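(Structure overview)
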Amino acid sequence: MSLYVYTTKECEKDIEQHALRKEVDHFKERLYKTQRTSFFDNFPPPYLKKRFKRQQRLLAGEIPIKGDIIICFYRVLIRGHKEYEAFLQNPKKYGDEHFNTLVSETDLEQWLNEQKRITTEPSRQELNSTESEFLWGLSGQDDFISGDIFIYENNEWIKVLGKDQIKKRLILLPEHLIRLIDESAYEKQLTYL
């Protein structure tokens, strides 16, 4: 699986209009090189946002095609302007009406095939020794040897926790999570609560 970056014609016009060519090209190169989207803000879902100088916002989306991910740069909008405010009011509706019409999945699939034909497939950046040690250092050892417990949250989990009936009970959550993970760790943790 590789990450590719596609820029719509409308976004190209926005880039020229706002004199962002150098910044956007640098950002695009960074995405290709690292093969990560962590440079974006994930707000508002399902879109990605990258802030540039002043109030300029690059709005993009992740589109999976045949095992690859295409980051589609839809538009550059200005924070505080009518278009951006309309987008913030209802991102899904605005995106369906304004972004999804900018490019079709068929066009993206053809573009992706052409990119694969003319370029070598981007590869993931190799881990440095510190990153590798972090990822593999505790492999096979007791999960609680370092005393840390990691809990990974996905979007569905975050949405559920945001509901009013759940928010009122969040104070009870850590105790139950620790008990689910490991009963002995739960008993140790109670002494610190």
About this structure: The first helix runs from residue 9 to 17. The chain has two domains: 3-118, 140-190.
